[in-house]
Structures are given as C-alpha cells and as structure tokens.
Design brief:
Structural class: alpha/beta
Distance between the termini: 82 Å
Strand order of the largest sheet: 8-7-6-9-11-10
Number of strands: 11
Radius of gyration: 27 Å
Number of helices: 24
Helix content: 40-55%
Mean pLDDT: 84
Length: 478
C-alpha cells in the first residue's frame, strides 16, 4: 500500500479529538431504553387472595412474583348472604399487606394495580360497604367481575387450546367451566362458539349447601352432592338438546379448584368417562381430613373438590363425549395473567359476541338482510357522531348486538314486537355480555321505534345515571 493511501486512512489528532467529542455528546443526548412497565393484579377469590406482579415487555409479560393466602370468603355469603366482620377484616389485612409489598416496586417507578373480586360477590348484601372499606383502608378501588369478564377469561383459555390440541380444533367440543358459584357450558364447532349457557351451580355453592346439612360421613356427603346437582345437570341436558345433538368429540373441563389438585389425581390430560368415575369414587371415599393430607391445600379448596368432580362426571354422563380433556396448565397463574391491565385486548371476543348474536337472531327467523343493514347504518352513525356522544368501543358493540336482535320479537307477533324483543333478549344468554349489558341491549330493542326511554320502564329506571344516558344515546342512533 502506498504512503499516500496509508496517510489518507489515518486520522489526524485533531480529527480524532473531534470524533471523541461528538461521541461524548451523542452519549449524553441519547435516551436510555425505557424500563418495562410494572403491573400488579390482586384477586379476591372464593377461597384465597392472590397477587401477581409482572413486567409488561414487548415480547410479553414477565412474571416477577406470585403470592397467595387462603381466605374462606365463600361460606360467609353462600350460607348467610353477607360477609362477616372477621372475614372482611382479614380481607383488608391481606390486601393492605400486598399493596405495601408493592411499595418496593414503586421506588423504581410507577406500578399499575388492579384489584378484582370473584363475581359471586355480586349477590352479597352490603357489597357497597365492603368496596368502600377496601377503598379507604387500602387506597384501591375494587372491581367485582361480572359474567362478561368471566366469559372473556374462559375465551382466552380456550384460545390457547389450538397450540396444544390441534387434532381437536376443528371438532365439536363441549367446554365445561365449574367456578365457585356458577357453571358455564359452551359448545365449540370448527373453532366458533355456537352455544352458551350459565347456571347457578358451582363447586363452593354446592359445598356450602352440603356442609350446612352436616353429612356426617363420606358416603352421605357424596349422596348429598349428587342430589344437590342433579336437577340443574338435567336442566343443562334439556336446554342444550337442540344445539348439542350426538356425541361431542371431547368434553373440556376447567375449574380453579380442580386444576390446583390436578397432578395428585391424574397425570394424563385425556381420560375416559370410566376413569373419571373411578377418580370421583376414590375422592368420595376419603374423609375430608384424608383429602387435605393427600392434596396439601386449604380447607375450602379441598372441600370444593368433590362437588367439582361430581359436576364433571354428571355432565359427562349426560352428553357422552368420546373423551374428557383435563388441560394441565397452571390455571391460577394463567387466570391472574389474563387479569393484567395490559391483557385486555377483546377484538377476538367481540367477534364471538357478534357471531353468537347472529346465531340467536337466526333461531327467531330474523330477516338477516335487514338486520345487517341496520347494523351497518347504526355503526356508521355512531362513528360519525363520536365527537358528540363520547361513547366507548364497548358501547359500539352493544349497539351492534341490538341492531342484530332488535326484531327477534316478530317471532312472537309483529304487533308490539319491540316489547317482545326485549323479553326474548332478557331471557337469553349472549356469550361475552354481562347481565347489565344484556339489559341495555334489551332496552335498545324496546326503544328502537318511536318511544323514548322513560322511568316508567322498571329496568330503565333501575339503571344509574351513566347507563340511562348510554341507553338514550344508543337508542337514538338505533
């Protein structure tokens, strides 16, 4: 290489100094990568209070901590309809303790906290006082989950199935979720939800009723459990007779209490009806003390195990699936993750709500072309008037559902069909919508004609101010 070329490639001392100064300025002005946002969810469940802390990273949530403390909340309100003072004190103590633990994370930056409670609290007397006490003592607002939130969580769990059970995705699957106070039954066909029903039949609700009867022996306990659940399980079969004909490919069972005890009971994820019956008989033969020793869980969780398994078995016998699927995923962790503030994308669920509403309209022979046109025009008006009404994306979904279902009442009679529509909607289960949502949709159908919302209508008068305004705006658009 020539001397000239070598000199050209070398920097002079002055150029080298300028380069270093430029690099130093760049390092001072370059912004450091933002720290991942820290989120926490505290969940007051039927038999425990849990907290999950996680970082919201671009690649997904990174769990930092999970804590659980037992709390027998359910027996208070299933037996007396209210929360005892001792239970409320213990609840406040645990939530306050969790919130104080979050102070360590708050030193490094802001922490978003969400406090939720099981939906069975909706029936509790004095709920407002309990919510207010938590707000004052802990500085956190309690959200009590409704049916809409629960169906969203079930939907998220179901969405994870294709990755593990590809052979079942396109088949007819019956999904059974046994919660503390309610049981939900869904039929999935080709990956879409085509049937949904919700029953006041839950593991802890049944356990409390049986415990109040003082069974005395394991044999009597199992007898009382079966008697307690029999009529509602028969009702499930009757209600689903038209929609669920023939044998489903599989019955997929979910339940918080059973999943915590999954491994000690069974290692396989797919079992036969006979195996489920044998497992249920095995648990039923154990005294409660022996179950607690075997499973190492708290009293309320172990006590709810037999009702959970009895419901699984009774439903399986009614519908005769070819196999029973017991997903072994850590239910409680997946449940808490799905409650995180950043995990609330609902587009997929909204599609299922619309799909289910169209199916419901079809059962009542609604003119599909007319309902589609009303839906299209209503959504167009909603979007164009956004700056005036300031309603939310969820309100837009309720408007869509009302547009699809507003003429189901013509199945009864074309005269006063708006009132018939409201009646049918109020007495239907719509997957993904809470009871309050369904009431609003019913009111929109009621007032889609000339009448204006007024307080002579009891269901309208019972709404709070925000929801009355919501009905007025949406009914005007529809």
């Amino acid at each position: 290489m020539s001397t000239k070329k070598t000199q050209a490639m070398q920097e002079t001392p002055q150029e080298e100094t300028q380069a270093k100064a430029s690099a130093a300025r760049h390092s001072r002005t370059a912004k450091p990568a933002p720290k991942p946002a820290v989120q926490a969810v505290i969940f007051i469940g039927a038999s425990s209070i849990s907290m999950m802390v996680a970082e919201d990273r671009p690649e997904g949530l990174r769990v930092l901590d999970v804590l659980t403390q037992p709390l027998e909340l359910v027996y208070d309100f299933f037996l007396s309809g209210s929360i005892s003072r001792d239970t409320a004190d213990r609840c406040v103590q645990v939530v306050r303790g969790y919130n104080e633990l979050l102070d360590e994370y708050r030193r490094a930056g802001e922490v978003t906290v969400r406090l939720l409670a099981t939906n069975v609290l909706l029936d509790v007397e004095g709920l407002d006082l309990f919510v207010n006490r938590l707000q004052i003592s802990c500085g956190l607002h309690l959200e009590v989950m409704d049916d809409g939130e629960m169906t969203r969580l079930i939907y998220l769990h179901m969405q994870s199935m294709p990755r593990k059970y590809e052979d079942l995705v396109r088949r007819r699957l019956l999904v059974l979720h046994v919660g503390p106070g309610n049981t939900r039954l869904l039929l999935c066909e080709r990956g879409r939800i085509t049937y949904y029903a919700n029953y006041r039949l839950g593991a802890h609700r049944t356990s409390a009723a049986v415990g109040a009867a003082d069974p005395g022996s394991p044999e009597n306990e199992y007898l009382l459990v079966r008697e307690q659940i029999r009529s509602l399980v028969e009702q499930m079969r009757h209600d689903a007779e038209e929609s669920v004909s023939g044998e489903p490919e599989a019955l997929v069972v979910y339940g918080p209490d059973f999943h915590r005890l999954h491994s000690p009971l069974v290692e396989q994820e797919r079992i036969s009806l006979q195996t489920l019956a044998e497992l249920t008989d095995e648990v039923a033969a154990m005294p409660l003390s022996q179950r607690m020793e075997k499973f190492g869980e708290d009293y309320a969780t172990v006590r709810a195990l037999l009702p959970t398994m009895a419901i699984y078995l009774a439903v399986a016998r009614e519908f005769s699936p070819r196999s029973i699927l017991l997903p072994a995923d850590e239910y409680s962790h997946a449940f808490l993750r799905s409650l995180m503030p950043s995990q609330r994308d609902t587009q997929g669920l909204e599609d299922e709500v619309i799909h289910f509403s169209v199916l419901l309209a079809g059962r009542y022979h609604v003119d599909r072309g007319h309902s589609q046109q009303v839906r299209r025009l209503s959504c167009s008006l909603f979007d164009q008037l956004q700056s005036l009404h300031r309603l939310t994306r969820h309100d837009r979904l309720l408007l869509k559902v009302a547009a699809i279902l507003h003429e189901v009442g013509t199945y009864v009679s074309s005269k006063r069909h708006h009132k018939h529509s409201q009646y049918i909607i109020l007495n239907s289960e719509i997957f993904g919508l809470s009871r309050r949502d369904i009431e609003i949709v019913g009111l929109l159908a009621r007032y889609h004609r000339r009448g204006e919302p007024n307080e002579d209508e009891r269901s309208y008068a019972e709404l709070d101010l925000d929801n009355r305004l919501r009905v007025q705006k949406l009914a005007a658009i529809l």
